[in-house]
Amino acid sequence: MGLFPTLLRRPDNILSMPLVGESLPGVRPGFLHGNPERWIPGAYAAGEAAGAEAPLPWVSGQADLLLVPGPKPGVETNTLARILRELPADLPVAMYERDQPIWPNFLLADGTEPAQGKATSETGLRIFRSALRHQGQGRTEAFLVVPAGRCAALLEGNKRAYLKRARGNDLLNRRHLVTSWEYQLAQAQVAATPDMPQEAADALPLPAASRVLVIMPHFDDEVLQCGGAILQAVAAGAEVEVLWLTDGRRGVSTVSEEESARIRHVEATEAMARLGVTRFAFLDAPETHLTARGSWTEVLRQRMLDFQPERIHTVWFGDNNLDHFEANRVLQAALPASLGQTLIAASGLWQPLPGWNALARLSSEEFAAKEHALQAHASQLGEVDYLRAGRGLGAFYAQTGGQAEAFWCLPAMDYFRAFRATGLPRRWFF
Questions:
Q1: Whole-model pTM?
Q2: Which among 366, 343, 346, 341 is positioned nearest to 356, based on CA atoms?
């Protein structure tokens, strides 16, 4: 992936924030791989209101915008890249979410659907995207809107996707293009996992373990990403330990950093009580400035040696959050060599997993208990509608109805081998 580091200015925490628009570019859209109206009804309505023609099956030379679903890694991605290479390099392409999460740079509110409603596998990602938009209501359609040539380079994992500057176009800012390129590389590593199911609904149950360690960057991550798995482990009689890497100083925007940290420690303690977890600790690295170079890394190493976990829950390295990304560097630096075969169960929040090989399906009682634990993080629910975000993401992961938590499971040494193979460890912030 290259010898030199990829340099980015340090963000506040979210790596790439999509723009919110009123309609897609183009007045004569065409689509490939099926009529997308059921997946992007808001785009259809917005286009009609703006005077655009109704989308039709793609005919080269007759459309000024290509609508296409985000492809799965492998044959679908390679096929789409070849198609895009045959089109004019500057033709706008709007890739949307259907079966596969994308790394969006553009959001479009779906005004045709009710503000509330039960999440389903079809609407889950739209509810999830809306909920993360600071108390966003309704459903939001996510798009990757880029010219065909640049889109092909992204799908191919080619650095040309971001090396050519695009001045005056907010959708083509370098931070998004770099992180989108990295996401493609990370997605390919997930897809290449041995025995990865072809269909997401065919994922196996989360493997049992007698000692489960949860290592998360922020308070509330533990409930949102694996609260159901924690409940199931506790119910099965497993020992469960939860560790938070950061101190919560930036989590409550209306109070001082000291008060924010205090509030979040209290909330986390209550969440543990609701999950039935008695073993937990705060490593208190500074929130939004987590790095592997700190005393917390050695503390984490020693706690892993003492606990000897059989399964470690953490956030995957492709998540759209700086502390979540850096948590992988901390865990990589802290992991004892003796735990190289310990199972990593990685999950996602700010960027859903693009594939998974293990599911924790939740009963209605388990899901209610998970949400009860999440409500202990009251300060965070006032910042972002995490309840709706969790419901949307859980419905998408479940695929066949109900709620589930999805995990990318593999031995720790293989997980970090995949991390290195993406080149992401050479990302540096200044």
A1: 0.96
A2: 346
